[in-house]
Each structure stands twice: as C-alpha cells, then as structure tokens.
Amino acid sequence: MARCVSWVPLEGSGHGSDDGPGGVLRRWVPCRNKVSARGQRCSRCVRELLAHPDAQVRMWLAAEPGQDVGVLEVLAGDLNPQVAGAARRALSARGTGGA
To answer: What is the separation, in whole angstroms, between the first and last Cα of the chain?
Structure first.
C-alpha cells in the first residue's frame, strides 16, 4: 500500500521558516495517508501546503523537483510575489508557461 510522502506541521507547533518539512520532528510529522501510487502526496496535504500561512513553505513546494503542474499553476497566482515568481520559473523551466 502506497503512503503519502508529505510532512505536515503539527497544530500549534510554532514552527517557522527556518525549520522546513521534516526538519524538526517535534514540529513536523509524516502524513502517511494512503495514496494510489508511491511517491505521491495526498490531496489533503496538497491543499494544506498550498494554503500554508508561511510563504517559505509554499516556496519549498514550488521548488520541489518534479512538482505537479497543477500545483505550480496555483502557486503562480499566489499573493506573495516570491512564491508566485518561484512557481512561474518552475513552470517556465518545464516549458509549460510561467515567466
């Protein structure tokens, strides 16, 4: 059975930009929800990371190698110009739009 590969922030953990997913185990935990194929992130984690209040987390998502084009397209419209720019650059590097 394939499991989600994402790390999720613990509620009320007080994590910050300096301790990214998986970085501080008291603040991030592996998701482990079931997914259809190995190496995937579950839809709940995708939604939570796209809406994460810390722009650095969304930038990590945009910079992730092999990121889903749909995720990058959402991030390209992010209100934070650094996040949007990172996503547009990733899309452009793939030849699928962006900057």
So the answer is: 38
